[in-house]
Every structure is written in structure tokens, then in C-alpha cells.
TrEMBL record:
Residues 17-181 form the Diacylglycerol glucosyltransferase N-terminal domain. Its main location: membrane. The lineage of its organism: Bacteria, Bacillati, Bacillota, Bacilli, Bacillales. It comes from Paenibacillus montanisoli. SUPFAM superfamilies: UDP-Glycosyltransferase/glycogen phosphorylase. This is UDP-N-acetylglucosamine--LPS N-acetylglucosamine transferase. One of its GO terms (molecular function) is hexosyltransferase activity. GO terms for cellular component: membrane. The keyword Transferase applies. It comes from the Bacteria. Keywords: Glycosyltransferase, Transferase.
């Protein structure tokens, strides 16, 4: 009997979409070793020259003109991509998608980004018979995710399901599964061993993340955090942004034994375990990873649109707080120096996580739907 094949299509507009695809792929294989998975960032795969250029332009817009993105997000919020837009995408960037699908012969296609989702939807309208599942990787449901050709939506929360049903999508086509995270984030590690691995002291520790693109918070507040460096360990993760890392390493305020400035790393799960507080942009994937670790979160500078909604959800759920001033930093940096209070708070978050979230639920749902 031929092994079942799942094709997961993403795009490189931020790392979260592709991380979700890989997390789902690993989860499926761990539940059923006979399943074969393939993750592809479709635009970069089909257009290895043009694709990265488009992603780079998007990254510059996120950095320089986030308000413009917010306006576009809100203007198109209730609108799915129309047939003309789908045709244009296919002709300009995705002309060989059907050929890729034909070669790989998947039994199921899962899209974790709206663009490949729109292209596969068009192919289904033209006769493609393969089921299409759409994994929405935020805590909101923008109209560009939606299409009548989608067989099943996999969503983060009941609130997102309601947003889809309010648009006329049948509840039977929506599964509340949570956003999948890599199984590594469900493991717990010995804190003293992690401190030795990362050359850390047994001190309260704060992890500051700028996402895969290393978009960090304002320089003033980054520098303000370093005033605590004699009492608090600070780990700055700037992703692939080597310019930011070099600039920070060159500044005297960051040159201290209790300060680490890291580039890209695949060990965020361990860094969350060894830390007592996470300061991050509220990307859907990072927030879900923080949720899985039960680490309290402070959110900064959400990109207008989906990150604002992500932030609202996690603040309302008690998993985080907006970082609005130096007073917010002082409050939390004081709290994590009180071992009992800090430990109790994290235990409460872990209990709440256990009630609301299971990292394998999405993989189990997909596996069940395939049978």
C-alpha cells in the first residue's frame, strides 16, 4: 500500500507560517510513521530569484511603514482574494504549482499562508481533486484566508471559528485545533543543565526576541533594560538581523557578563525554559510557543493588523501584557526576582495552558480527517 502523502505549502513572509507547517509535519509523522510530508515555501521554490526579492520588500515595509500594512489589512479584512487576483498570482509567480502537485502526488494539501492557499483554491476550481486544508496561523481570520474551495479550516480558537462562521462558512468546515508547535516545545529541560549549556548564571533571566527578522524594540527601552544587568540576565535574540547584532555588541551598555546577544538559533524552546520572562513581538507562532512553555510575555510594537489581534487575545487570556513604558519593565523585572511569586505565576500559566491548549491537537485532527 502506498504511503499517504501530505504537502504543506507556506511562504517566507515572516518565519511563523513555515514553522507552523514544519510543526504540523513533525506532529503527523510522530503520530503515524507511514505518512510522508513535504514542506515548501512555494514562491521561493518556484521563483528562487524573484521570491526572496518580494519577501525583502515586504520586510522593509514592515520595518519602515507598518501603518501602511495596517491600512491595507483593515481595508481588505472581509474580502477574500477575487478570481482576477488569484489568476494574476498564478500567472506572475505560481505558474508551475500544478506541475509540482502532479509530481509529488499528495493525498492532502495544507496551506499555512494565504497566497498558496489562493493558488491551490484556483486549481481546485479548475478541476484539482485533492482536499485542501487551511491552517490559519494567527488569532484572527483575515478575508484573504477564505475560499469556497477550502475543505477544512484549522483555527487557533473558538473566537476565530466564530469570525469565519459570521462570514457564512459552515461550522462543519472548521476545526478548532490550536496552532501547532514543534514537539520540542512540549519537552521540559533541567534549568541548571540549560544554564551550563548557554553559559548562564543562576539569576532571573529575561529573553528578548525580535522574531526571525530581528525587528527589535526601540533603542531607548532596549538600553533601559540593561540598567538591570547586575541583577537580571538578559538574552537578546535578533534572528537573522546581523546588522542589529553587530551594532548591539559594539555598544558598551550591552558589554556585560550577564548580557547575551544571539543571532539565529534553533534552540528557542530551551531559551524559553531557562528564562523567567519573554519580551517579544506578538507573532502568532511565537505567542503560541510562549503559551506552550507557560512563560509570561510582554508584547511590544505589534504590527497593525493580525499582531494587534494576537496581542489582544493573549492579554485578555492572562498570558501577557503590553509593554508600554519603563514602569512595565520595572514591575516585571522586580517580580521575577521573587522566586516564589514568579514560580507560582508560571505554574498558574501552565495550568491554564493545559486547560486550553494541546500542541498535538492539530496533527491529531488532520490525521483523523484523512482517515
Amino acid at each position: 500500500m502506498r504511503k499517504k502523502r501530505v504537502l504543506l505549502l507556506s511562504e517566507g513572509f515572516g518565519s511563523g507560517h513555515t514553522q507552523a507547517a514544519y510543526a504540523l509535519a513533525v506532529g503527523l509523522r510522530s503520530l503515524d510513521s507511514t505518512i510522508q510530508t513535504r514542506v515548501i515555501e512555494l514562491g521561493n521554490f518556484l521563483n528562487p530569484v524573484i521570491g526572496p526579492m518580494i519577501v525583502s520588500a515586504y520586510r522593509k515595509t514592515v520595518t519602515k511603514q507598518p501603518k501602511l500594512l495596517g491600512k491595507l489589512y483593515r481595508r481588505q479584512y472581509k474580502k477574500s482574494l477575487n478570481r482576477f487576483a488569484q489568476l494574476a498570482l498564478h500567472r506572475l509567480f505560481y505558474t508551475h504549482t500544478e506541475q509540482v502537485i502532479s509530481q509529488l502526488k499528495p493525498d492532502l494539501i495544507v496551506c499555512t499562508h494565504p497566497l498558496p492557499n489562493a493558488v491551490v483554491s484556483r486549481l481546485k476550481r479548475l478541476g484539482l481533486q485533492i482536499p485542501l486544508y487551511t491552517l490559519i496561523t494567527d488569532y484572527d481570520a483575515h478575508g484573504t484566508w477564505t475560499s469556497s474551495e477550502v475543505n477544512k479550516y484549522l483555527v487557533s480558537t473558538v473566537e476565530v471559528k466564530k469570525k469565519l462562521t459570521d462570514r457564512g462558512i459552515s461550522p462543519s468546515r472548521i476545526e478548532v485545533t490550536g496552532i501547532p508547535v514543534h514537539p520540542n516545545f512540549w519537552q521540559t529541560y533541567d534549568k541548571s543543565e540549560l544554564q551550563a549549556q548557554f553559559d548562564l548564571k543562576p539569576l532571573p533571566t529575561v529573553l528578548i526576541m525580535g522574531g526571525g527578522w530581528g525587528i527589535m524594540y526601540s533603542d531607548d527601552l532596549l538600553a533601559y533594560m540593561t540598567r538591570w544587568r547586575d541583577r537580571i540576565q538578559l538574552i537578546y535574540c535578533v534572528g537573522n538581523n546581523e546588522k542589529v547584532r553587530e551594532r548591539m555588541l559594539a555598544e558598551s551598555s550591552f558589554q556585560h557578563p550577564n548580557i547575551k546577544v544571539l543571532g539565529f538559533t534553533k534552540e528557542i524552546n530551551k531559551l524559553m525554559d531557562v528564562s523567567d520572562l519573554l519580551i517579544t513581538k506578538p507573532g502568532g507562532m511565537t505567542c503560541t510557543e510562549g503559551l506552550s512553555k507557560g512563560i509570561p510575555m510582554l508584547f511590544y510594537e505589534p504590527i497593525p493588523g493580525q499582531e494587534e489581534v494576537n496581542c489582544e487575545y493573549f492579554v485578555a487570556s492572562g498570558f501577557g501584557e503590553m509593554l508600554v513604558s519603563t514602569e512595565t519593565i520595572d514591575k516585571w523585572f522586580e517580580l521575577i526576582q521573587e522566586p516564589y511569586t514568579s514560580g507560582q505565576h508560571r505554574m498558574n500559566l501552565l495550568n491554564k495552558r493545559n486547560q486550553q491548549y494541546n500542541p498535538m491537537e492539530c496533527s491529531r485532527a488532520v490525521l483523523q480527517l484523512m482517515q
